[in-house]
Design brief:
elongated; Serine Threonine Protein Phosphatase 5, Tetratricopeptide repeat; TPR-like_helical_dom_sf; about 260 residues; two-stranded antiparallel sheet; Arc Repressor Mutant, subunit A; two-stranded antiparallel ribbon
Length: about 260
Amino acid sequence: MLNYEILGQIRVSGRPGVCAPRARKIETLLSVLLAKNNQVVTAEHLIGEIWGEHPPARASAALYVYVSQLRKLLRGNSKDAEESPVVTSPRGYSLHVGIDELDADRFTRLYEQGRTLHWDRSYGQAAKVLREATNLWRGPAFGGFTDSSDVQAYATLLEESRLGCLELLMETELLIGRHREVVGQLSALAKEHTLRETFTEYLMTALARSNRRAEALETFASARQNLVQQLGIEPGSSLRKLHHSILVGEMSDAV
């Protein structure tokens, strides 16, 4: 069984001698096949993703060589005669990825499980599962790889899911009273994602419930200034209501 890790710099493990590709074009090939895992990708499409609008005259032959090199890389030092996960078909190539062999699939499964537990109000279990999901991330998906439009599109989708998972995790942590414990992480998230008001709202909530009312109000002032300067808009109604609640000392226990 191979393990493909794309929630950070791309890595492959599971067999002796198996490692991530070092050659850029083989990395592009593997990244595209992982982004389209278990789907057939035509040779023409792969050529476009690898070389762009100006492929070499013998691009088809070069692609065949890269596929062979990728198969060898994924085989590692294994002496087994098992089939390669890179499958050739009349229409092109595909990468067979089994259940839980891709860390992005494990993340999605855990995120969905955590969301279900949250809806069932099993907040303690939900927080544990959601934290496990977010801990799978080691950095930007595919290590910030930008050579392929397919990879960029999949990475964008994964990043949006990661942020959604983090929002739900922070909400869940607040619901079980871990206000002080999440202030640091929320501060970093609010600073990194200045236009995502949910993180600011949760940070203000955590600060206010940690008897740090002045810092909560400063957080709102900073967020408001940023929104006005960047977009010319005021904070949303939810953030404004929370600000008023903290300002007049009517902070509720609700998130």
